[in-house]
Amino acid sequence: MKEKLSQILDNALSQIEKSGELEKLNDIRVAFLGKKGELTSVLKSMKDVAPEDRPKVGQMVNEARAKIESRLEEKKAAFEKALRAEKMKAEVIDVTLPGRRLRAGHRHPNTIALEEVEKIFIGMGYEVVEGPEVEYDYYNFEALNIPENHPAKDEQDTFYINDKILLRTQTSSVQVHVMEKGKLPIRMISPGRVFRSDDVDATHSPSFHQIEGMVIDKNITFADLKGTLEQFAKQLFGEDTRVKFRPHHFPFTEPSAEMDVTCFKCGGKGCRFCKGEGWIEILGCGMVHPHVLEMSGIDPEEYTGFAFGVGLERIALLKYEIDDMRLLYENDTRFLEQF
Ligand code: DAH
Question: Which of 62, 78, 92, 178 is the most buried (most CB within 10 A)?
Answer without folding.
Answer: 178
